[in-house]
Design a protein that fits this description.
The chain has helices spanning about 1-30, 35-40, 60-80, 90-110. The chain is mainly alpha-helical.
Length: about 120
């Protein structure tokens, strides 16, 4: 029992120390030669005109979130579809309910006009 908790603690400590070490090493090794050209804002080689901070429309974020939701749906449905012939009836009905919930979300987004690219 104690060794199991020891392994979990070891993995937690290593999970925090290893990324911190990688960041520390890259910070130490990276060349530090600042100059005005490196400090300037770069936008495709064109000097910025006006305010650089522009607010984006919320529709872009909603569109991205909708894409993400349906992208993750594929990750959940792919193994389910591969094992469909071996699944019990309850698992098949559960998958169909999952698809129907996602379709309801898609219809909601469609009716609300969130899928229109503005």
């Amino acid at each position: 029992m104690q060794t199991e908790w020891l392994y979990i603690g070891l993995f937690l400590v290593l999970g925090m120390v290893m990324p911190a070490m990688a960041l520390m090493i890259s910070w130490l090794v990276a060349p530090k030669k600042p100059n005005p050209i490196k400090q300037s804002t770069y936008e495709c080689g064109v000097e910025t005109v006006g305010e650089a901070w522009v607010q984006f429309k919320a529709e872009y974020y909603i569109f991205a979130l909708a894409f993400l939701i349906f992208d993750v749906e594929t990750v959940f449905l792919f193994p389910w579809a591969l094992a469909l012939d071996k699944l019990p009836l309850f698992a098949v009905v559960e998958g169909i309910v999952f698809i129907l919930i996602l379709l309801a979300g898609l219809v909601y987004l469609w009716r609300k006009g969130e899928l229109e690219w503005a």
